[in-house]
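Good morning N.,

You mentioned wanting to compare the apo and holo forms, so I went ahead and generated the holo version with magnesium ion. This is what I fed in:
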Amino acid sequence: MPKTKTMFYCTQCGNETPKWLGKCPACGAWNTIVEQPAASEGRKKTIADHSGAIRRPRPLQEIEAADELRFHTGMAELDRVLGGGAVKGSLVLVGGAPGIGKSTLMLQICDNLCRFASVLYVSGEESERQIKLRAQRLGIKGEGLSLYSETSLEDILGAVEAQRPDILIVDSIQTIYNTDSTSSPGSVAQVKECTMALMQLAKGMGVTVFVVGHINKEGSLAGPKVLEHIVDCVLHFEGEEHSSYRILRAAKNRFGATNEIGVFEMGDRGLSEVPNPSEALLSGRPKDTPGSCVTCVMEGVRPVLAEVQALVTPSAYGNSRRSSNGFDYNRAVMLAAVLEKRGGLALSTCDFYVNVIGGLTVNEPAADLALIVALASSFRDKSVPYDLAAVGEVGLTGELRAVHALGQRLSEVRRLGFTKCLVPARGSGKLVVPEGLSLIRITNIREAIAALI
Ligand code: TYD
Ligand code: MG
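and this is what came out, ligand included:
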C-alpha cells in the first residue's frame, strides 16, 4: 500500500513545511505547525475549467466598469457593512462564534434574495428538514430557494453547474471536504482548497457566494489566515452571550470601507435590524447612578452613542484587580493612570472594572473622556447628570485632544435628547452647535472633574 504523503501546515498562516517546527518560519507563530496529509498533486478540475471559457489577459480599456453590479440583500444593515449591497460574483465570508446567528442571518437574507434571483443554500451542518423547520419558524416562504444538505465539494460544484444559481450559500466551510484530498474536513488543507474552489466558482461563473466560517478560541476565523486573503469580504458577527444585540463588522472588504457596522437584535422571530442603534444601546440606562457616562463613537460614517460604565472599589490585600469589557484593556489602564497622576484620584489602591453596554466594542480614542468621567464618578460615588455626554481624546498629560466629526457626533447626542456635552476646547470653537445643546469646553481632565464631580 502506498504510503500517504504528509506535510506540515501552520494553522495560523497556512504555510507548508516538509518537517515539524516549533515556530512557523513564515508568520513567526509558536506551536502552530500540524501534520496533515498533503494536498493531492496537480491542479484540480474546478467549475471554472468546466465552463469552457478561455481566459486570457485583457486590456484595461476593454473591461467594462459596469462589471461591478450590486444587489440588495434585503437587510439594510448587511448592505451597509458590504458597502452598499453585495457585489455580483464576490465571495463573502461570515465568521462568528457558535450560536451567534450566522445560519439564521443567511436564511433570512435568502427570503429577499430568492425574489429576484435563484438561490442555492448548501448546509453541511443541518438536514434539509431542519432548515425547512427553521424557515417556517422565521416565516420564510422562499420561492426559488433550493436547499441542499451536502458536504462533498464535488457534489456541491456539480449541483451548482446543473442549477446555475445566482447566489450560493455555504454553511459552513469547515464541514465541506474535497474527496480528492486525503486530509479530514475542517483541516487547514481542506478549508483552503474548498475556499479556493468556491472563489473560482464566484469569479468564473459570476455566482455570488456567501460562506459561513467558524471561529476559533482566539476569535479569528478557524483555518489558515490565508482564507482571509483569498476571499473578497470578511465579516465578523459578534455579540455578547447574554445580550440579544448582534453586531456585524467588516474585517476586510474589497468593495467598500471596513469601518461600518450593522446592528441586529435576535428575537424569537430571528434577527431584526436595529436602524437606530444609539437608542437601543442606551435603553435601560440607570438614572442618578455613579459610574456611567455616555459617549459618541463613529462607526464608519454613522455616529453611535455608547454607555461606558466603570466600577471602582477598594482593593483587598493591596492586590488590585482590573478588567475591561468592550474597551481596550491597556487603554483603560493607561487612562486610570492618567486620572491618578493628572486628576489626583488615588486609583492605584483600587480595583476597577470597565464595561461598555450592549456588546459594543469601543476602540476609538474619542471615548477616552467618557471612561475618565465614569471612573471618577464611581471613585467619588457621585453621579453625572443624566442628560450629559462626553466626547474627547485624553493624552498622557491629561490634556483633551480634538476629535474628528465632532459636529456629527453632537447632532446625534442632541437627537437622543441630551442637553449637555463635554467636549475638548480645541477644535470646538467654530462649530455649529445643535439647538438645545450646551457645550462644556474643557482643556484637561482636571477641569472635567471640577465641572462634574
Ligand atoms: P444559528 O443561526 O443557528 O447560529 P450559528 O449558525 O451562528 O451557530 O442561531 C442559533 C441561535 O439563535 C440559537 O441559540 C437560538 C437563537 N435563535 C433565536 O433566538 N431566535 C430565532 O428565531 C432563531 C432562528 C434562533
Ligand atoms: Mg449554524
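The first helix runs from residue 47 to 50.

Happy to go through it together on a call whenever suits you.

Best,
F.
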